[in-house]
Write a structure and sequence with these properties.
- With 132 residues, this protein is mainly alpha-helical.
- It has a domain at 2-67 and 97-109.
- Helix content is 56%, strand content 8%.
- The protein has six helices and three strands.
- A three-stranded antiparallel β-sheet has the order 1-2-3, covered by helices on one side.
- Helix 1 packs across helix 3, helix 2 crosses helix 5 and helix 3 crosses helix 5.
- The model has no long low-confidence stretch (mean pLDDT 92).
């Protein structure tokens, strides 16, 4: 995912001066980009590629800033999240940043990508059997 996200960032920042620098603050930019796409009025399918890569960018911010790692979802998670990949946080929980961006497009500002970060990054790591 990291290579694909880097290519997406290179492509979109070449056209517009967007501060997609993998910072937590840049997640607010993601929210605003999605809001702009939404306001333009296209069907979700028409912008599905952009939404996917914006979500992957959000996931990469979680990887770089909150210690998450990219994971392939198992069959149950794929059915739940509607995605094949997501991130696993240091506490062991799986999250779907790609779906969060899609939800922002569908539902609007109450589905904030930046707020998702603030909810996730500070959670303590869950103990594992290896810790005992």
């Amino acid at each position: 995912m990291r290579v694909g996200v880097a290519e997406f960032v290179r492509r979109v920042t070449a056209r517009k001066r967007l501060p997609l620098d993998y910072s937590v603050a840049s997640l607010r930019v993601v929210d605003r980009i999605v809001d702009g796409l939404r306001a333009a009025g296209p069907e979700q399918g028409a912008v599905a590629g952009e939404l996917f890569w914006l979500g992957a960018y959000a996931g990469e911010v979680l990887v770089r800033r909150a210690g998450a790692e990219w994971v392939d979802f198992d069959l149950g998670q794929r059915e739940l999240f509607g995605q094949v990949v997501g991130v696993r946080m240091p506490d062991g929980r799986a999250w779907n940043p790609i779906g969060k961006v899609t939800n922002r497009f569908a539902a609007g500002p109450e589905e904030s990508v930046q707020q998702m970060y603030f909810l996730l990054h500070g959670r303590p790591r869950m103990p594992t059997m290896a810790d005992r």
